[in-house]
Amino acid sequence: MLSNIRVVLVQTFHPGNIGSAARAMKTMGLRDLVLVSPKDFPHAEATRLAAGATDLLDNVRVVDTLEQAIQDCVRVVGASARLRSLPLPHYDEPDDMAADLVEDAQTDPVALVFGRERYGLTNEEIQCCSHQVSIPTNPDYGILNLAQAVQVLAYEVRRAWRRHPQGDARVPRPTDDRMPSRAQMTHFHEHLSRVMCQSGFLTQPHARTEAHLQALFARAEPSRKELSLLRGLLASLETHLEDGQQG
């Protein structure tokens, strides 16, 4: 189960933070580390601060975009200060987030995403996620460095994993009942946007409307079967609209 839980670091500036994050992960049993366009990696400082976790660095995957890092994941949680301008579902308590992450990790990859040291994740990157989470720090001084944030959330994940029934105590959900991957949700939202424009509901791309719809479906958490039904509905509407235009 823990092997399905991925940590994604986006455009990390200091290589030492990559090593410290790897060490924080390994202490909690997490091993899947993906780097999105790091400024400097591999690097001796990353190796030095990883201490006994250099095996994670040896197996790290480096990709160009956040979409590449998370496309096969069914739940993607972006760690950030709460952005009320974005309607994406938000976990106020990290332990609630960890319980859901561990539940989904029974059968599918999931991810925790951390942004840059100086300013975290951009709005566009948060919108690639399915949820947000914040660490409830001291409101007068809530500054955590990257490795500290990884350590806190990795601890919550391990705590939830230890409390989760193991082995034969839980029967995994059938494939159709599982959550769709981020790639599948992206295709759905692109399809929905196309049909909204064809129908005249949107006369031009409208980022805020689409963000609200993305948040709506993130809260609803449709299963793969339900998403397939929605895609079938959109395909039928699309064919009807095309036939009407030709007539």
UniProtKB/TrEMBL annotation:
Show the CDD domains listed in the entry: SpoU-like_TrmJ
Subcellular location(s) of the protein = Cytoplasm
Q: Which molecular function GO terms apply here?
A: RNA binding; tRNA (cytidine(32)-2'-O)-methyltransferase activity; tRNA (cytidine(32)/uridine(32)-2'-O)-methyltransferase activity
- Kindly list the biological process annotations in GO that this record carries: tRNA nucleoside ribose methylation
> May I ask which residue range the UniProt record assigns to the signal sequence?
none
Quote the Pfam families the UniProt record gives.
SpoU_methylase (PF00588)
Please name the InterPro entries in this protein's record. Answer: Alpha/beta_knot_MTases, RNA_MeTrfase_TrmJ/LasT, SpoU_MeTrfase, tRNA_m1G_MTases_N
Any idea which UniProt keywords this protein has?
Answer: Cytoplasm, Methyltransferase, S-adenosyl-L-methionine, Transferase, tRNA processing
Q: Name one GO cellular component term.
A: cytosol
What catalytic activity is recorded?
cytidine(32) in tRNA + S-adenosyl-L-methionine = 2'-O-methylcytidine(32) in tRNA + S-adenosyl-L-homocysteine + H(+); uridine(32) in tRNA + S-adenosyl-L-methionine = 2'-O-methyluridine(32) in tRNA + S-adenosyl-L-homocysteine + H(+)
Annotated EC: 2.1.1.200
Q: Which residues form the tRNA/rRNA methyltransferase SpoU type domain?
A: 5-155
Predominant place of localization: cytoplasm
Which PANTHER family does the entry mention? Answer: TRNA (CYTIDINE_URIDINE-2'-O-)-METHYLTRANSFERASE TRMJ, TRNA/RRNA METHYLTRANSFERASE
Family, similarity comment: Belongs to the class IV-like SAM-binding methyltransferase superfamily. RNA methyltransferase TrmH family.
What interactions and quaternary structure are annotated?
Answer: Homodimer.
Entry-linked NCBIfam families: rRNA_methyl_1
Q: What does this protein's UniProt record list under function?
A: Catalyzes the formation of 2'O-methylated cytidine (Cm32) or 2'O-methylated uridine (Um32) at position 32 in tRNA.
Recorded protein name is tRNA (cytidine/uridine-2'-O-)-methyltransferase TrmJ
Q: Which organism is it from?
A: Halomonas binhaiensis
The gene is trmJ
